[in-house]
């Protein structure tokens, strides 16, 4: 009997740290009409010269792409500044999860220089729960950072789906809400 329980106990011990500091919450109070209609982007957000016909708005380097559910799509972000000065991000993701072989496995908060400020690992597929919202709290945003990109990744295709650019100085914008 002990030999049968040992692998199960080991799996539990190895998976529990992956959930530390992360909170599963119900989706924020948004309606489907609140989901963004933004053009999907192809991160990473590295500063480059703006593409022809695109404004130099500090977000150069984002390349429009097709919204394919083979890539994980960020639909909506709620960023909440906590009393401690740290941030909580509630991120709604959509992906064509197909079990353990192909699923959205993380989302990140990235500054416009490409530095990852936070990553929320998604420890399992969400085949029957689409879209889904997961939270990450205790995110430290440097004082000089006004805008962040929230992007999602799948375990097969990586990044490349729709991302949401969040302006932390605004109350809301296309695909996001900021609470203070």
Summarize the topology:
Layout: H1 2-15, E1 22-23, E2 73-81, E3 87-94, E4 104-111, E5 116-121, E6 132-139, E7 147-154, E8 164-167, E9 172-173, E10 176-179
Parallel strand pairs: 2-10
Antiparallel strand pairs: 1-6, 2-3, 3-6, 4-5, 4-7, 7-8, 9-10
Structure report:
The protein has one domain. The chain contains one helix and ten strands. β4 and β5 form a beta hairpin. About 30% of the residues have low confidence.
SSE topology string: HEEEEEEEEEE
Give the overall shape, derived from the CA principal axes.
elongated
Strand fraction equals 25-35%
Radius of gyration: 17 Å
What's the helix count?
Answer: 1
The average pLDDT value, as a whole number, equals 75
Q: How many individual β-strands?
A: 10
Distance between the termini: 53 Å
Portion in helices: under 10%
**Residue ranges: pLDDT <50 for 5 or more in a row?**
12-23, 25-66
| Strand line-up across the major sheet | 1-6-3-2-10-9
Structural category: mainly beta
Query: The biggest beta sheet, please?
Result: 6 strands, mixed
